[in-house]
């Protein structure tokens, strides 16, 4: 997670979930190397990355927002773990914004007079639909990071389209 996003309550939640801070403004490949180091040391070797560098609450995936970091991290990790299989799982998240789709928890909070509690975290979401696409083996992607990231963006868009339709 970007260091600036781990302040206050988000930092506490981030620590609890295993998030680690990365200075995206650090020179060179510092963020890439930090991520690879953590993945090498970890047993599960799993990481959640938003390749566009942020949550996309409006659900519009913009090509110019996508960064090459996820592909570069996985490619470097693959080299360091003796070419063991490494893959990216594209994930599409469709946020529910209609209050009519509120969960029982949201309705209960509203009845308790805490109608604005959702706005404490940004836009009001009343749940979401998540679609996880088929794994993309890192070796199946083009060597050029931008081309590989564009394929990843397209696969995330496919998952997002499925999430919207659900």
Task: Describe this structure as you would to a colleague.
The chain is mainly alpha-helical. Helices cover 37% and strands 8% of the residues. The model has no long low-confidence stretch (mean pLDDT 83).
DSSP helix count?
A: 5
Are there runs of 5+ residues with pLDDT below 50, and where?
none
Strand content: 5-15%
The chain-level structural class is mainly alpha
Please give the number of β-strands. Answer: 4
Q: Mean pLDDT across all residues, rounded? A: 83
Structural shape: globular
Strand order of the largest sheet: 1-4
Q: Report the oligomer.
A: single chain
What is the chain-wise order of helices and strands?
Answer: HHHEEHEEH
Largest sheet: 2 strands, antiparallel
Distinctive features:
4 strands, mainly alpha, 5 helices
Brief rundown of the structure:
By secondary structure, the protein is mainly alpha-helical. The chain has five helices and four strands; from the N terminus they run H-H-H-E-E-H-E-E-H.
List the helices and strands and how they pair.
Layout: H1 9-17, H2 30-41, H3 69-80, E1 87-88, E2 91-95, H4 104-111, E3 128-132, E4 136-137, H5 145-165
Antiparallel strand pairs: 1-4, 2-3
Helix pairs in contact: 2-3
């Amino acid at each position: 997670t970007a260091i600036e996003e781990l302040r206050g309550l988000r930092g506490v939640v981030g620590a609890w979930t295993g998030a680690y801070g990365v200075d995206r403004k650090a020179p060179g490949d510092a963020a890439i190397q930090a991520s690879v180091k953590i993945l090498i040391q970890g047993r599960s070797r799993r990481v959640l990355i938003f390749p566009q560098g942020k949550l996309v609450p409006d659900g519009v995936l913009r090509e110019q927002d996508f960064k090459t970091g996820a592909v570069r991290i996985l490619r470097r990790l693959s080299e360091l773990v003796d070419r063991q299989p490494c893959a990216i799982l594209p994930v599409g998240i469709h946020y529910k914004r209609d209050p009519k789709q509120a969960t029982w928890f949201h309705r209960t909070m509203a009845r308790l007079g805490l109608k604005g509690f959702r706005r404490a975290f940004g836009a009001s979401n009343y749940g979401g639909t998540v679609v996880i696409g088929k794994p993309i083996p890192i070796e199946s992607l083009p060597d050029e990071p931008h081309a590989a990231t564009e394929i990843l963006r397209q696969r995330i868009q496919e998952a997002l389209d499925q999430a919207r339709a659900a």
